[in-house]
Amino acid sequence: MSSTSTSISVLSQGSGVAASAAADMTDLESITHMLQWVVPFASPPAVEQLGRALWGLGSLTLVLALTTVLHQPAAGPVFAHYKAAYYTVLAFVLFVAVPVELGIAFCLPRCSHGRRIHHFARVLVPCAYLLLLVVISVGGFVPFKL
After folding, report:
1. Quick one: which of 140, 55, 125, 139 has its CA closest to 90?
2. Claim: this prediction has a pTM higher than 0.70
3. Residue 26: which of 6, 55, 49 has the closest Cα?
4. Which parts of the chain span the membrane according to its record (predicted)?
5. Distance (Å, rounded) from C-alpha 138 to C-alpha 64?
6. pLDDT of 70-115, one tens digit each?
7. Pick the residue with more confidence: 145 or 107?
């Protein structure tokens, strides 16, 4: 008997809700399975599509972060008194996050046999969107006021 069925049988002795929740979690083991559960006819994105998405998001984030660095921190309760935090966030974006995005976007089409890099790229795309929103919020929409 596997550990999953053992945990389900142990949980089913307590309450039916816990047994149902544990059974549901075993069905949805990965992000791909969850996506197919929500949208059954959806397929994972192609390598070229992932590369283009990462390249576009990384380039836009780079341009917005560089534009934001050239301006003073936005007036507000967070960055008005802590300018070091403002520049630390932007330095992390410029020197760590954007190079990782652009590097993965550059290497993705060349690594056709690498399953790990494809999985990492699929996870990185939502993070790239979040990073773009962080840069926009840290800058206080400065690039859009030009």
Report:
1. 139
2. no
3. 6
4. 53-72, 84-108, 120-144
5. 10
6. 877 776 777 777 888 888 888 999 999 999 999 998 988 887 677 8
7. 107
pLDDT, residue 52, reads 87
Between CA 33 and CA 66 the distance in angstroms is 38
Q: Which two tokens stand for residue 133?
A: 């929103």
Q: Give the length of the chain.
A: 146
How would you class 81 by CB atoms within 10 Å of its CB: exposed for 0-12, middle for 13-18, buried for 19 or more? Answer: exposed
C-alpha distances out from residue 2 to 12, 27, 70, 72, Å: 15, 15, 58, 59
Q: Alpha helix (H) ranges present in 28-144? A: 31-38, 47-69, 83-92, 98-107, 115-139
Half-sphere exposure for 56 (CA within 13 Å, toward CB): 9
